Amino acid sequence: MSDFETLTISKARDLLLKGDLSAVKLTERYIERIESSQKLNAFCLITAEIALNQARFCDKLMRSSEKGKLCGIPLAVKDIFCTKSLPTQAASKILEGFVPPYESTVTAKLWKENAILLGKLNMDEFAMGSSNETSVYGPAINPWQGSDTELPLSPGGSSGGSAAAVAANLCLGALGTDTGGSIRQPAAFNGVVGIKPTYGRCSRWGIIAFASSLDQAGPITKTVRDSAILLEIISGHDSKDSTSAVQKVPNFESALIGDIRGKKIGIPAEYRIDDTPPEIIKLWETGIRQLKDSGAKIVEISLPHTKYSLPTYYVLAPAEASSNLARYDGVKYGYRGKLRAGEGINELYKRTRSEGFGDEVKRRIMVGTYVLSAGFYEAYYQKALKVRNLIRKDFENVFSQGINAILTPTTPSPAFPLSSKSNKSPVEMYLNDIFTVPVNLAGLPAISIPTGTTDKGLPLGLQLIGPAWGEAEILDIAFRLEKESNFKELPTNWWAI
């Protein structure tokens, strides 16, 4: 398979349908690739036997009219998705040994379309992190290396394993989740495409919760077309999720025309923050020019409450986390702390939770409990809810004026060396989400696509934000920007054993 390194979901789909490629051969190639790439630590579970059995079935099904849309396509999913009869740990010690007897809705949709499961992917513990360093499995490593250092780089977080696996070609595509940028930031760090759908577009049922009003599943892929293919399949109303919206699911792939003449692209003044590296500014300016040259109209806009997004997020998300994670007590499932003679249920709770949760998770639980406590609820939590509403209204006002999409950088920096931020104040890490968090607070769709590199050879991404349920339009604009930027760089295979 001479074009294996650049193989995409759409290309593989066509080759499989023509009979020029077998699902078994393709799956075997990916399993070999995964097993020779252990240095990246992207996978926390490899399901080789399951994958090969699925591939054999797909090869038999390929000529049948009953085959699914992803028949024979090898994928992997973040460890936060419950997979029936397979370990699901959310990269936390406290879920040690947990094997769910049910399947998450979005992964069930993949298997219904005959996708192949290669395994589960590394992540930050309970999706709390921006560098994949809070994982009980140890950090995943970015397959890219800068020309100025041999230090291992962060793949971003929390879906760092998903983005690293796609960038290193360990799978054709992956699922991640995005609570404050956890699909888009790692996509930018790894030179791949990641889309966070509108809140409610994809079911959250069977996804281990971090912050219920912010979490959304989405695909990480090599191309915009591949993201469109996966997004259509995992979208749709789910009666098991009360926050799942009753919205028609468009054919996202057919929306990829690339004609953006007359489209209005908003450029928010508030995203021009101090200390942004010149290479990020240059990337943004280049993207603006490329869209303008393609016929789009560039409009300066204002999102005045953007500056409050990070503090608002880091009140609301920990508050929801403190509530969601209260269920992990060592009684029914997962890790259980050992009791000493004479100790009772209270000691069991304390020991289980203090030993089972990592430092970052405990930090956020403490913050969340504090802002929800008597005397502080109104001062912090309720005020944050009001500011969140103002942030949402900023976006609504802009889109009501005919803006089709908003273009911003995805991250304020390229991938950084592991430990370079986690060893400092937690705020240093939180600042990495400055361009992505507002989208989650507003519940809007956004996509990150790679459009260039730094002078050290590391990938950089631009983000397109759309109105609610506007995934088709931002995918189409991203499709055009992808064509104009012509990003073709790939990481070297330094990690291969």
Annotated CATH topology of the domain at 4-262: Amidase signature (AS) enzymes
Q: For the report, how would you describe the main beta sheet?
A: 11 strands, mixed
Give the rounded overall mean pLDDT.
96
Unreliable stretches (pLDDT < 50, length at least 5) are: none
CATH architecture of the domain at 4-262: Alpha-Beta Complex
Describe this structure in words.
With about 500 residues, this protein is α/β, with parallel strands linked by helices. Among the domains are: about 5-260, Amidase signature (AS) enzymes, CATH 3.90.1300.10; about 305-385, no CATH class. About 35% of the residues lie in helices and about 10% in strands. It has helices at about 10-20, 25-35, 50-60, 105-110, 160-165, 185-190, 225-235, 280-295, 310-325, 345-355, 360-370, 375-400, 425-430, 435-440, 470-485; strands at about 45, 75-80, 115-120, 175-180, 195, 215-220, 265-270, 295-300, 405-410, 445-455, 460-465. The protein has an 11-stranded mixed sheet, sandwiched between helices. A hairpin with a 5-residue loop joins strand 10 and strand 11. The model has no long low-confidence stretch (mean pLDDT about 95).
